[in-house]
Amino acid sequence: MRISTKGRNAIKLMLDLAIYNNGEPVRIKDIAGRQEISEKYLEQIVAVLNKAGLVKSLRGAKGGYLLSEPPESYTVGRILKTIEGCMTPVEDVGYEENPADRVSRIVWDKLEEAINGVLEGITLADLLEWYNEMNIDYCI
Q1: What sign does the CA torsion over 42, 47, 53, 56 have?
Q2: pTM score of the predicted model
Q3: How many CB atoms lie within 10 A of CB 43?
């Protein structure tokens, strides 16, 4: 399993929204500048997140994006699955009759369980806490 640039940038975008969460919408232009990611690329990502209900869009001169929920309700897994889709480490090969295939399937199932455990065990609030603890003054 490989997380794409789009998935990594979705995490950055969501963390930026959490960091700059003061009740006012955050503009894509501002996120793009802080994260050094193109606005057009972020617009593609935020459109998916908005459609899935992870962010709220506000139009107008003071428009932008807000988190739809508190940071502790988002997991890294939820964000990545929204952008990436299925997060399995191998293609679904099904359960074959061959004993070696059935045994190796146990490995892939355990690997998927471990990956999902990590991704679902880390929240956006955790990322925000780590960010604040590090007192980061540069782009994330």
Answers
A1: positive
A2: 0.86
A3: 12
Q: How confident is the model at residue 74 (pLDDT cuts 50, 70, 90)?
A: very high
Residue 108 and residue 86 in contact, taking contact as beta carbons nearer than 8 Å:
no
pLDDT of residue 137: 57
- Classified as helix, coil or strand, 65 is strand
The CA-based angle 29-15-88, given to 5 degrees, is 115
- Distant-in-sequence, close-in-space partners of 29: CB < 8 Å, separation ≥ 6: 39
* Sign, Cα dihedral of 14, 69, 63, 26: negative
Q: Residue 140 above 60 pLDDT?
A: no
Contacting residues for 26 by C-beta, under 8 A, at least 6 apart: 16, 17, 20, 64, 65, 66
